[in-house]
Write a structure and sequence with these properties.
The radius of gyration is 16 Å and the shape is elongated. Helix 2 runs antiparallel to helix 3. Helix content is about 70%, strand content about 0%. The protein is mostly helical and about 80 residues long. The model has no long low-confidence stretch (mean pLDDT about 85). The protein has 3 helices and no strands.
Length: about 80
């Protein structure tokens, strides 16, 4: 979706541009979050590690989608 929105960026509506940048910022934040989650010691996550797997697998999907949706809902400041 972000690649599609980035194509012909200049011709997009302001809402599409906000959606695009929200997704990019969310994606960069998810990379940082997953890096921190992977570097935490296994003892922090408990015995089975299921929570760690869920957090690492779903953060790159949930965080950019949420940031893009929220940024597209926010009105322009002008």
């Amino acid at each position: 979706t972000l690649l599609w929105l980035g194509h012909r960026y200049r011709n997009r509506s302001p809402r599409s541009k906000r959606f695009f940048w929200g997704g990019i910022i969310g994606y960069l934040a998810s990379i940082a979050a997953v890096t921190v989650l992977m570097l935490l010691p296994p003892v922090f996550w408990g015995s089975d590690g299921g929570l760690r797997w869920i957090a690492i697998q779903w953060t790159p999907l949930i965080l950019p989608a949420t940031a893009a949706a929220l940024s597209s809902l926010v009105g322009s400041r002008t």
